[in-house]
Amino acid sequence: MNIRQGGTTIGATGSVDFLRVGTTWESVTTNSITLPAQIGNFQAILKNATAQLQWNTLSETNTQQFVVEKSNNDATFNNIGAVKAMGTGNHAYQFIDNKINAGWNYYRLVIVDNNGSKQYSKTTAVYYGNANNQAQVFPTIVSDVAYVKYPASKGTVQIINNNGVIVAQQVINSQLQAISTSSLPAGSYIVKVIDGNNTTTVRIIK
Fold first, then answer.
1. Which fold has domain 131-205?
2. pTM higher than 0.70 for the full model?
């Protein structure tokens, strides 16, 4: 029996692939896959020793809830709560973490739909502690530029890709240093601030 693909017709419920089985044309319908939500801006703001997470949706389709996950190392995340989704349209949401830890606190969203499908947001972070001893890098989701805030106004900043390769390096000569990220391909990077024996690392996403 010979089987040949004959073409594809796109319909409202998905795509219909026509196959020739012998001398007969058969059709197979494949349903399209729709993500539960599209996230716009997602940020963490330090306020009164709490982390205020704010995000908005550009669209929602059958969305059930947003599960908030937290990490201290940007590797292992734990569930710290959830926010019920409106389900359709576009909306603004907020979640407050009252148990913020000293140092960097990383957050991400797990978007869950009514059928149990999941997708993850990008990661955002906020630093809590003595800024005089800790370099700060912001924003953690970048486009053309990232900023390094370091009161010592000295040292070196490196941007390292996931293969451990230094893709950018710059000497720090001011308390607020701008680092260009416009030429970097989309992906995840480590920003390393080095000052003598002190080293600070922060993950950014472009």
1. Immunoglobulin-like (2.60.40)
2. no
